[in-house]
């Protein structure tokens, strides 16, 4: 099944793998069943810790439990981590949000469809639209412009920042295996969490993906982490994913389409009948069997009278 | 792709890419005019911490580039700005606001502080600038508008001081509401003041570690990162708020203090002598 993966969840899973923390991943589709009401969420066995949801909180918690992937970093590298995470959040994340949730083609074709198919009723009607509005509002507030609309101008500005950010990351990574030496750190978890959805989820409007694919070292970096730390889920080349997705979308839309057609015809007929009854065009009368013979003759006479009048 | 193509072409042409690009830009760009003006809100009564920090950062940057600019204080500077944010500069027939676009603008005119950096250093510089914007600026906004004491005693009265009742109340509350919604959207609304101070401390620690014992962030020459950091740190150190905790966080890093003093001495010493740029500091200097 083709999955939408979210940045925060990936970041946390990646960090846990890097730090060697034993983390059990529950794949649920209903956010109301999560301990904090939103996804992703971390639930611990300790009673003193309440459930956590932001990646930074979860990473801090894991560090306190002595699962620390940044143990070997120098002071300067720790400072660099903070700086590059800020760069990701300010420059890349808005574009990712835009491309998944606000860009009309991507949202309708991929994101909303996935949510509608995978989340139980009644959330599948409410949730995608609510998230779409929330994300658009967030972009408006962050850019400081309350009249922002999804469109070419906004897309151009956001993508420009994001492309520059990816180029900067590529320059900083160079030919190294990870950002700081030979073992991954929390910065690698954040970068992976932000870039992997671009690699794995095929979107109709894929400018960000194209740029990422052109940066060889970043692409190898992401696939490397996937192969090393997520062997069960990763490793498939994107080309295969594309064909699977298009097949499944054709297949899925067929039964839904028929069902929708039948339902809409029934609904239309029902509403027309109801209207006719209310207006008195058609009236349902309980005719007793003895009077049944009278009925048709009466109508026929009425019909003849009408014809005469018309002539 | 475009960077690689440009490098390839310049190699064929037989000269180094950056130099050729800059000389080409210098030929086509207009010179920096004498009457360039920077607009900000009124210094004594109206301007707030975050705006003052941004304005000082731009002034520091322009001084580092040796570009003269007049500072003009207007009560409606925020509304005049093309993006709604201050400061903005009026150069020739163009109006540009905020440090990022101003840096790009001066670069197009052939003045740049970061040309000597290699790719890795440039990536680090941009990242640290985002760190300051993400943490320091957001913390300043939070303290100004989301902390009730500061908002009531300082921010709202100052922000709306040029206006009479009832406009002052309306504008002040509107601004506060807008900033609080933004904090909500980026996840800062749930933070307490203590957590915000902690974030500022972490940010300063990162800056201090990156600076180390060097005079500027990228050794001998200042860059736009130095201007930005100076703008924010100096303003925090010289602004009186309801509590001194923010200033204390910075004072605990001696190399940051020395850094601010160094830039003040090198680039703002002549402000009293009345040269092209008039005054900048809002309160006492660091001496």
UniProtKB/TrEMBL annotation, chain A:
It comes from the Eukaryota. Keywords: Isopeptide bond, Membrane, Mitochondrion, Mitochondrion outer membrane, Protein transport, Transmembrane, Transmembrane helix, Transport, Ubl conjugation. GO terms for biological process: mitochondrion organization; protein transport. InterPro entries: Glutathione-S-Trfase_C_sf (IPR036282), Glutathione_S-Trfase (IPR040079), Metaxin1/3 (IPR017410), Metaxin_GST (IPR033468), Mito_Protein_Transport_Metaxin (IPR050931), Sam37/metaxin_N (IPR019564). Pfam families: GST_C_6 (PF17171), Tom37 (PF10568). The chain crosses the membrane at residues 262-284. SUPFAM superfamilies: GST C-terminal domain-like. It is found in: Mitochondrion outer membrane. Its main location: mitochondrion. Residues 13-131 form the Mitochondrial outer membrane transport complex Sam37/metaxin N-terminal domain. GO terms for cellular component: SAM complex. The keyword Transport applies. Residues 164-225 form the Metaxin glutathione S-transferase domain. PANTHER family: METAXIN RELATED, METAXIN-1. Involved in transport of proteins into the mitochondrion. Essential for embryonic development. Belongs to the metaxin family. Interacts with MTX2/metaxin-2. Associates with the mitochondrial contact site and cristae organizing system (MICOS) complex, composed of at least MICOS10/MIC10, CHCHD3/MIC19, CHCHD6/MIC25, APOOL/MIC27, IMMT/MIC60, APOO/MIC23/MIC26 and QIL1/MIC13. This complex was also known under the names MINOS or MitOS complex. The MICOS complex associates with mitochondrial outer membrane proteins SAMM50, MTX1 and MTX2 (together described as components of the mitochondrial outer membrane sorting assembly machinery (SAM) complex) and DNAJC11, mitochondrial inner membrane protein TMEM11 and with HSPA9. This is Metaxin. It comes from Oncorhynchus tshawytscha. The lineage of its organism: Eukaryota, Metazoa, Chordata, Craniata, Vertebrata. The gene is LOC112229699.
From TrEMBL, chain B:
CDD domains: GST_C_Metaxin2, GST_N_Metaxin2. Residues 201-263 form the Metaxin glutathione S-transferase domain. It comes from the Eukaryota. The keyword Protein transport applies. GO terms for biological process: mitochondrion organization; protein transport. Residues 55-175 form the Mitochondrial outer membrane transport complex Sam37/metaxin N-terminal domain. InterPro entries: Glutathione-S-Trfase_C_sf, Glutathione_S-Trfase, Metaxin_GST, Mito_Protein_Transport_Metaxin, Sam37/metaxin_N. It is found in: Mitochondrion outer membrane. GO terms for cellular component: SAM complex. Interacts with MTX1/metaxin-1. Associates with the mitochondrial contact site and cristae organizing system (MICOS) complex, composed of at least MICOS10/MIC10, CHCHD3/MIC19, CHCHD6/MIC25, APOOL/MIC27, IMMT/MIC60, APOO/MIC23/MIC26 and QIL1/MIC13. This complex was also known under the names MINOS or MitOS complex. The MICOS complex associates with mitochondrial outer membrane proteins SAMM50, MTX1 and MTX2 (together described as components of the mitochondrial outer membrane sorting assembly machinery (SAM) complex) and DNAJC11, mitochondrial inner membrane protein TMEM11 and with HSPA9. Involved in transport of proteins into the mitochondrion. Belongs to the metaxin family. This is Metaxin-2. It comes from Oncorhynchus tshawytscha (Chinook salmon).
């Amino acid at each position: 099944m083709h999955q939408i993966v979210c940045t925060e969840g990936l970041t946390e899973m990646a960090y846990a793998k890097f730090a060697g923390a034993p983390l059990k991943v529950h794949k649920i589709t209903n956010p109301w069943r999560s301990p904090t009401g939103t996804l992703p969420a971390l639930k611990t066995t300790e009673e003193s810790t309440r459930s956590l949801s932001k990646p930074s909180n979860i990473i801090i918690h894991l560090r306190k439990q002595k699962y620390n992937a940044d143990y070997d970093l120098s002071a300067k590298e720790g400072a660099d981590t903070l700086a590059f995470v800020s760069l990701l959040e300010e420059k890349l994340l808005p574009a990712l949000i835009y491309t998944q949730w606000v860009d009309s083609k991507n949202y309708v074709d991929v994101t909303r469809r996935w949510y509608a198919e995978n989340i139980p009723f009644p959330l599948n009607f409410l949730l995608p639209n609510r998230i779409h509005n929330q994300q658009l509002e967030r972009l408006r507030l962050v850019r400081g412009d309350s009249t922002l609309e999804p469109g070419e101008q906004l897309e151009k500005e956001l993508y420009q920042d994001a492309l520059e950010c990816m180029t900067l990351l590529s320059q900083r990574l160079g030919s190294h295996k990870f950002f700081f030496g030979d073992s991954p750190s929390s910065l690698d978890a954040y970068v992976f969490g932000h870039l992997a959805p671009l690699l794995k989820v095929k979107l109709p409007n894929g400018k960000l993906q194209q740029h990422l694919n052109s940066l060889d070292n970043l692409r190898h970096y992401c696939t490397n982490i996937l192969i090393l730390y997520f062997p069960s889920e990763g490793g498939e080349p994107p080309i295969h994913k594309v064909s699977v997705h298009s097949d499944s979308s054709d297949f899925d839309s067929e039964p839904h389409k028929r069902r929708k057609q039948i339902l809409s015809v029934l609904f239309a007929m029902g509403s027309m009948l109801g209207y006719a009854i209310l207006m008195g065009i058609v009236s349902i009368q309980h005719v007793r069997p003895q009077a049944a013979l009278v009925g048709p003759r009466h109508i026929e006479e009425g019909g003849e009278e009408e014809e005469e009048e018309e002539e | 792709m475009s960077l690689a193509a440009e490098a390839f072409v310049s190699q064929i042409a037989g000269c180094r890419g950056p130099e050729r690009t800059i000389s080409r830009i210098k030929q086509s760009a207009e010179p920096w005019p004498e009457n360039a003006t920077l607009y900000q809100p009124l210094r004594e009564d109206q301007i707030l911490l975050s705006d003052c920090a941004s304005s000082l950062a731009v002034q520091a940057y322009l001084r580092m580039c040796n570009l003269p600019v007049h500072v003009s204080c207007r009560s409606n500077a925020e509304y005049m700005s093309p993006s709604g944010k201050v400061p903005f500069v009026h150069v020739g027939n163009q109006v540009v606001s905020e440090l990022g676009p101003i840096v790009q603008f001066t670069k197009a005119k052939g003045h740049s502080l970061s040309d000597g950096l290699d790719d890795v250093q440039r990536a680090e510089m941009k990242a640290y600038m985002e760190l300051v914007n993400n943490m320091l600026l957001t913390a300043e906004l939070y303290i100004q508008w989301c902390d009730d004491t500061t908002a009531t005693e300082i921010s709202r009265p100052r922000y709306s001081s040029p206006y009479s009742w009832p406009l002052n109340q309306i504008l002040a509350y509107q601004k506060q509401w807008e900033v609080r919604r933004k904090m909500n959207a980026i996840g800062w609304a749930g933070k307490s003041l203590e957590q915000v101070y902690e974030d500022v401390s972490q940010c300063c620690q990162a800056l201090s570690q990156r600076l180390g014992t060097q005079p500027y962030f990228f050794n001998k020459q200042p860059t736009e990162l130095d201007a930005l950091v100076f703008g924010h740190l100096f303003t925090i150190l010289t602004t009186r708020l309801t509590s001194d905790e923010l200033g204390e966080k910075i004072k605990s890093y001696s190399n940051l203090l020395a850094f601010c003093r160094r830039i003040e001495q090198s680039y703002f010493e002549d402000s009293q002598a009345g040269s092209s740029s008039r005054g900048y500091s809002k309160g006492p200097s660091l001496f």
